[in-house]
Every structure is written in structure tokens, then in C-alpha cells.
Design brief:
The structure holds 2 protein chains of 2 kinds.
Chain A: E1 5-7, H1 8-18, E2 23-26, H2 33-40, E3 46-49, H3 53-67, E4 71-75, H4 79-93, E5 98-104, H5 120-124, E6 130-133, H6 137-152, E7 158-164, H7 165-169, E8 171-173, H8 193-205, E9 209-213, H9 215-220, H10 222-235, E10 239-241, E11 256-259, H11 266-274, E12 277-281, H12 287-290, E13 301-306, E14 320-323, H13 326-339, H14 346-360, H15 376-387, E15 393-397, H16 401-409, E16 418-419, H17 430-440, E17 445-451, H18 452-455, H19 461-467, E18 473-478, H20 483-492, H21 508-514, E19 518-522, H22 525-537, E20 542-547, H23 571-574, H24 581-585
Parallel strand pairs in A: 2-3, 2-4, 4-5, 5-7, 6-7, 9-10, 9-12, 10-11, 12-13, 13-14, 15-16, 15-17, 17-18, 18-20, 19-20
Antiparallel strand pairs in A: 1-8
Chain B: E1 8-17, H1 22-32, E2 39-46, E3 51-60, H2 62-74, E4 78-83, E5 90-101, H3 105-116, E6 120-125, E7 128-135, H4 137-147, E8 152-157, E9 161-164
Antiparallel strand pairs in B: 1-3, 1-4, 2-3, 5-7, 5-8, 5-9, 6-7
Classes of the chains: A alpha/beta, B alpha+beta.
Chain lengths: ~575, ~180
């Protein structure tokens, strides 16, 4: 037993190193001082000091989503842990692998309402994939290795390790990663071959097929995106992606119909509604996607590939469920597709594409840029044009109208380059996430497309960006309103704009300068390209304040409580298709 | 497609690692996702392997019941989930302690009914009995109902425990 004796804090550092961790996002406090002391005495792991724990979790999410690795967070007990809760919930909803180490008061004080004590495992139980309270230093190494395995495998998610101060100061035995396994946890990776055969047979017979794919493909790794692209191209079928899935299939590909769902394209939603075979890959029939459930894609046979058995038949009953890692299932599916020499009905397919092209001809994303005011869509379009040929561009967003416009107007060719808060819809996600991306990819161009309201939710992280000289670009579509709130109040509440006007906004240029960054501002359409150029030329961090049309609404839109085939395409539709009372109670 | 709306009761057995917080995870899952718990029992069943067995009686549509099972299986310390109501024949038992207080004819009547139900007397004073009764939930409900007019003052029930008939064990059963 004398072997591998180490202090708890050293065990933690050793375990993190053995797990390949090189960056931690965190904030110190009383309960984690021993851990910070151990970290101070080594060089393998760099700590990024954020300005609030919520920022640390989003930064780790950005790091994880852009690299495919596990993001690591270190925060103190009590308020440190409770500040992390939003980010943990965000990571759970979007299946982002995280380890969050929280300090805890010493074991003998737990339950005594000690200073900075909170029931962290109790609070985080519903917002983590799993959590641990380590009471014995000899369990620590095993718990950490297990936590990494749990966070990264199966459907990924956040894992909290609550570490009392006496445990991090006590001495115990270190255990290397390979000696750890857990009997009760073994995610299924390989899809059932019988179901795969059934799925391929169904796909081959389809007359109006569609691929509906989501963030599961990104989580499975870049190979899954390649396999999806291969399969979609060899079938010749149309493909649509969810908000979380953007980048899983190249946006420039003619078979891509754009994003689907509440603010998805007309052609994607109509094709979902009218299809006869739906191949859902790594998506979960979430309410932003389905709209009115009882009228969701009424005439289709549905194939659903997902690593999480609880996603199957949760909202929508499917005909062919395949539980497994989408990458592995797609690989098997391609083999079966090729060996069965499946020949899709070309005549039917041609008619289907003709129908889709008619829907496309609606040009549902059209907008008119004229006059002296910048349209927000135009701003994103110009940003896209200016950056699309650059090598490595990562886009993060906050939450709201700007997020939807970014999803609609920025084209993603590769996975892992689009980072947004999809499930939880966390305003304030984008800047810290961009910070995390930039830490992982120091030479890449990282842009947070933001709104003026969201950005203020975690504006303190500009200080972190400044400290580590991270050249993050914050591109604010400033319309002076919580735009999506204003839009819903216009559509649903008679234009009574309750508390959605952003009064007393800071001067973003001066704000940028006060953080040591560069502030830019643009108010006229003709100045936009110049400002974007200047932003891209700047080596430093930038906050660009782009003043856009305050009354612009985000279209197309499926109003809450409606089916895919009921879409508002623009302002002229608002009066024709009033939103029902049942729709109003939905979010 | 028509939505299946029949609500049925299901008895679900869950084999879990006996570790701190495991029951909170299971209960939190039910409350957080709005599922019903009609009854829940839990006890360690293997000290060496550190395993506990939770028996939950719940209700819902077939889609909800399938979700409950899938969500339970997602919990990291859960080894095995079995729906004893549909995975084959099973036996269910519940134990209740029932206190009845009274004198005279009511007291005699309560004893007579207890005899019919094969309930045992665990404690007796001049004015009260504590009965122990074992059976399925319906039998216990009937007994408690009959005791109400006879001076029922207290009931304590274990909740349902259940096990599959035949040779198989929960651990080696197939889903």
C-alpha cells in the first residue's frame, strides 16, 4: 500500500494528466485551495482563470465541442458550484462531455450549514449525466477515471466530482486509468444488424425520403460526418440538419435543404411533412423540430438511429429503432446499402426533387437590404462572405434572433465549427464558449455572433479574453431589443413590448477598449464590409457593434402549436395565420 | 397514428449499486419527469456485491412506461431494469401493520375479520390490536377498508415487493 501514495490534490492532477487534460477553466475559492496549490507546482496543465464560474463551464463546453475532447472545470464549493449549474444543464441538454470538479467543505462539516457549503451533488443530480461525492481519498483516482469515461462515452454529458477539502489534503493510493471499469455502465455502440437491414430495405423502397440529422453526428466524431455525407450522396436523397447538427453535412451541397424546425427553411420543413421515409440520425424529435406532434410528418415510416435508448419513441413513435453510435451504425448501413445494390426508384426521386425545388423556389430566406439601415440577415451574409474561404473559422452564438439568423445565413461545411446553446437556450453562452474555442485553437478565427442583450449576460469574460490575449471577435447584431422576445410579443401579445427594450446599453466601443480590446461600430450598410475587414485584420480581441434594424423579425417561422406545413414566411403572413390559444401556452 | 392512451399499472424491479444518492437519483427521475410512483421499496440484497433492489409500482401509457424503463437504465448505478408486469409471470406481496382501537363488539369483529384474512395479532391491549397482514395490494386494501368502521387508527405499509416466477434471476434475465 505504500506505493503510489499521494495527497488528494496530487492524485487529481496526476489523474487529469493521465486523461490527457492540458487546459482547465476555473475559479479558486477556499475549498479548492489545495487543488490550486498542486496546480501551481506543475506545468502540464494550464489553468484559465475566468471571471465567473458560469463562464468557466461555457468555456469548457466550447473547448469540448470544438475539439471532441472532454472539457474540464474547477470551481469552489457553495456559490462556485451553484454558479456552474446553468452551464452543466446546458451541457446535459446538448450532450457535451464535461468534468466539473467542485470543492466541498471538509467531510466532518458536511450537513452543518458550514461556510460556502451547498448540497452540490443534490443540486446537480438532475443536471448532470452522473455525479460523485468523494469521501475517501483512496476512491479519488478511480472516481476521476470513471467520470471521464462516463462523460465521454455513450451519449456524452457533464459529470460533477464533489471533492471535500479534507479529501484533497489527505493521502491515498493512486490508480492509473486502465484499472477502472464499471459493471453497471456499458453503452451500446453497435446497431442491431437486423434493424439496419430493415432500415436499408425501407430506404431503398422510398419514394419521398429525407435524412433528418442532428448533433449526435457531431458527438460521434468527424468520421460520422464523412460517413453521413457518403451515405446521403450515394442515395441521392435530400438531407436536413437540426440546429445542433449544422456542419455534419456540407451546407454548400445541393442535397442539403438547410436547417429544419421552428426557424428552419420552408423546403426542409415541407419535405419533413410530406416525406414517406424519414431517416433520423442522431437527433431527438425535439419540440423545436416537430412542431405540433399529432400532425408531425403524418405519412412517413421513421427510422431512428440514436445512442440513447431513451430517445427512441420519447416524443414520436418510430418504425425502425436502431440503438448505437451513429458513426458505427452509418458504417454498417453503408455496407448493407452497397452490398444489397439498393436501387432507389429514380422516377419517384426525380419527382420528389422537383417538388422540393418548387418549395426552394419560394426562397424563404429572402430579405431586402435597402435604405440606410442594416438588415441583420445582411450583416451575417456579409460576415459569411468575408470568412467562408478562410481555413479554420469557428462560430459561436448567444441565444435569440441573431442565433437563428446565424444558423440560417452562415454555411458550415465541417463539423465542430458551430457552437450554440440548442437545448437549454442559454443567453450568455457565446462569448465564454468562444473563449474556450480560442484556447483550444489559438490560431483559428473565432467569432461570437451575439445580440446586445445576450452579450451582457457574461460580459465579464472579456476580462479573461484580455488576460490570455485571445483574439476572439464578438460580432454584435445590436437591435436595442431582446429581439426574439420582441418578435413573440409582436406575434402573440398584440405588440405590447413588455420589458424587452434594452435601455442604457453601454457604449460597446468604449467597453471593448476598457477591456484592452478593439471596439468597432457600424451603422450604415455601405460601411459594413469595411468594418468586417478591419475586424478580421485585427490581431487583438474585437467587439464589433453592428446597428441593425430594430423591428426585423426572424422568418420563416412555425408558430408554436402548429405543424410543419403551417409556416409564416414573412410579415405579410402574420395576419393570415394567427396563432391559436393552445399555441400561446407553448414556449 | 392514434396515440395509445390506456393507463396501466406496472411493477418494475431495478437492480442498483448500493451507493449514496442512488435512491435520490431514482426518485428524482420520477418527480423531475412527472412520472407516478404508486409504491416504492428498497433494501440491500447482496452485501458482498453491494447491490440493492428497488421495486417500483408506477402507472402510465405504454409509451410512458417504456420511457420510464429507458430513463432508469440510463442511470449510471443501475444494473438491470425489469418490468415484472410484462416480462413474464411474477408474484407480488405487500405487508401492512394495522392498528385498530375499540372495545366491545367492534373489537371482537375486528379479530374475526383478521382471522378470515389470516392476519396475525402482533400487539394487543384491552382497547387495541396491531395486526400484521401479508398479501397483494388488493387484499390489503380490502382489509384496511373493513377495519375503518371498527376503529382503525393507524396503518403502516411496506409497499410492493415482487419477483419473477421460475428459475431465472433478475441479473441474468434478458430484457
Amino acid at each position: 500500500m505504500a506505493d503510489n501514495q499521494m495527497q488528494g490534490s496530487e492524485i487529481l492532477m496526476q489523474a487529469l494528466k493521465d486523461q490527457g487534460v492540458t487546459k482547465i477553466f476555473g475559479y479558486p475559492g477556499g475549498a479548492v485551495l489545495p487543488l490550486y496549490d498542486a496546480m501551481h507546482q506543475q506545468n502540464a496543465i494550464q489553468h484559465i482563470l475566468v471571471r465567473q464560474e458560469g463562464g468557466a463551464v461555457h468555456a469548457a463546453e466550447g473547448y469540448a465541442r470544438s475539439t471532441g475532447k472532454v472539457g474540464v472545470v474547477l470551481v469552489t464549493s457553495g456559490p462556485g458550484a451553484t454558479n456552474a449549474v446553468t452551464g452543466l444543464t446546458d451541457a446535459l441538454m446538448d450532450s457535451i462531455p464535461l468534468i466539473c470538479i467542485t470543492g466541498q467543505v471538509p467531510t466532518h462539516l458536511i450537513g452543518n450549514d458550514a461556510f460556502q457549503e451547498a448540497d452540490t451533488t443534490g443540486i446537480t443530480r438532475p443536471c448532470t449525466k452522473h455525479n460523485y461525492l468523494v469521501k475517501d481519498v483512496n476512491d479519488l483516482a478511480r472516481v476521476i477515471h470513471e467520470a471521464f469515461y462516463v462523460a465521454a462515452s455513450g451519449r456524452p454529458g457533464p459529470v460533477v466530482i464533489d471533492l471535500p477539502k479534507d479529501v484533497s489534503m489527505g493521502f491515498g493510493t493512486y490508480l492509473p486509468p486502465e484499472k477502472v471499469k464499471r459493471k453497471s455502465y456499458a453503452p451500446r455502440l453497435k446497431g442491431d444488424p437486423k434493424e439496419i437491414k430493415k432500415a436499408v430495405a425501407l430506404m431503398a423502397k422510398a419514394k419521398k425520403p429525407i435524412f433528418y440529422c442532428g448533433g449526435g453526428i457531431i458527438n460521434s466524431g468527424p468520421k460520422a460526418s464523412e460517413l453521413l455525407t457518403t451515405l446521403v450522396r450515394s442515395t441521392g436523397y435530400p438531407c436536413t440538419l437540426t440546429l445542433m447538427g449544422l456542419g455534419a453535412y456540407p451546407a454548400s451541397d445541393p442535397q442539403f435543404l438547410g436547417m429544419l424546425g421552428m426557424h428552419g427553411t420552408y423546403e426542409a420543413n415541407l419535405a419533413m411533412h410530406e416525406c414517406d421515409v424519414m431517416v433520423c440520425v442522431g437527433a431527438r424529435f425535439d419540440d423545436r423540430i416537430t412542431g405540433l406532434l399529432s400532425e408531425f410528418s403524418p405519412n412517413s415510416k421513421k427510422i431512428h438511429i440514436d445512442i440513447d435508448p431513451s430517445s427512441i419513441n420519447k416524443n414520436v413513435t418510430v418504425d425502425v429503432p436502431i440503438v448505437g453510435d451513429v458513426g458505427q451504425v452509418l458504417e454498417d448501413m453503408i455496407k448493407v446499402w452497397e452490398s444489397s445494390r439498393a436501387k432507389p426508384d429514380q422516377k419517384a426521386l426525380k419527382a420528389w426533387w422537383k417538388q422540393i425545388d418548387e418549395w426552394r423556389a419560394k426562397d424563404c430566406l429572402k430579405f431586402v437590404q435597402k435604405g440606410k439601415v442594416i438588415k441583420p440577415q445582411y450583416a451575417i451574409q456579409r460576415l459569411y462572405e468575408a470568412t467562408k474561404n478562410l481555413d479554420d473559422v469557428f462560430i459561436t452564438t448567444e441565444v435569440g434572433q441573431h442565433q437563428m439568423w446565424a444558423a440560417q445565413f452562415y454555411g458550415f461545411e465541417k463539423p465542430n465549427h458551430w457552437l450554440t446553446s440548442g437545448g437549454l437556450g442559454t443567453m450568455g453562452y457565446g462569448m465564454p464558449a468562444a473563449l474556450g474555442v480560442q484556447v483550444a485553437h489559438p490560431d483559428a478565427l473565432v467569432i461570437d455572433i451575439a445580440g446586445e442583450s445576450s452579450i451582457l449576460m457574461n460580459i465579464q469574460e472579456m476580462s479573461t479574453i484580455s488576460q490570455y490575449r485571445l483574439p476572439v471577435k464578438v460580432f454584435i447584431l445590436n437591435n436595442l431589443y431582446m429581439g426574439m422576445i420582441r418578435q413573440w410579443q409582436e406575434l402573440l401579445h398584440g405588440g405590447r413590448y413588455a420589458e424587452c427594450y434594452m435601455d442604457s446599453l453601454p457604449d460597446f466601443q468604449m467597453l471593448a477598449e476598457s477591456f484592452g480590446a478593439v471596439g468597432l461600430k457600424c451603422e450604415k450598410p455601405e460601411d459594413l464590409d469595411g468594418m468586417i475587414d478591419e475586424m478580421l485584420k485585427t490581431d487583438n480581441a474585437v467587439i464589433a457593434d453592428v446597428r441593425v434594424d430594430p423591428m426585423e423579425n426572424c422568418f420563416p417561422m412555425i408558430p408554436s402549436g402548429n405543424a410543419h406545413n403551417v409556416m409564416l414566411l414573412g410579415p405579410e403572413d402574420e395576419a393570415d395565420k394567427p396563432i391559436s390559444e393552445e399555441g400561446m401556452v407553448l414556449v | 397514428m392514434p396515440v395509445e392512451e390506456t393507463i396501466n399499472f406496472h411493477t418494475i424491479a431495478v437492480l442498483v449499486d448500493n451507493e449514496p444518492g442512488v435512491l435520490a437519483r431514482v426518485i428524482g427521475l420520477f418527480s423531475g419527469r412527472g412520472y407516478n410512483i404508486e409504491s416504492l421499496t428498497v433494501a440491500e440484497i447482496s452485501h458482498d456485491e453491494n447491490l440493492s433492489r428497488i421495486t417500483i409500482v408506477t402507472s402510465g401509457t405504454p409509451m410512458i412506461i417504456a420511457q420510464i424503463k429507458a430513463q432508469l437504465e440510463r442511470l449510471i448505478p443501475v444494473h438491470k431494469v425489469s418490468d415484472l408486469t410484462i416480462d413474464g409471470p411474477s408474484v407480488e406481496r405487500e405487508l401492512a401493520l394495522v392498528k385498530v382501537s375499540g372495545t366491545g363488539e367492534k373489537r371482537v369483529e375486528s379479530l374475526r375479520i383478521a382471522d378470515i384474512f389470516r392476519a396475525r395479532v402482533l400487539d394487543s391491549t384491552n382497547e387495541s390490536f396491531v395486526f400484521e397482514i401479508i398479501g397483494d395490494t388488493g387484499k390489503l386494501n380490502a382489509f384496511v377498508d373493513l377495519m375503518k368502521p371498527l376503529g382503525l387508527v393507524d396503518v403502516s405499509r411496506t409497499g410492493v415487493v415482487a419477483i419473477a416466477r421460475g428459475v431465472g434471476s433478475l441479473e441474468d434475465e434478458k430484457n
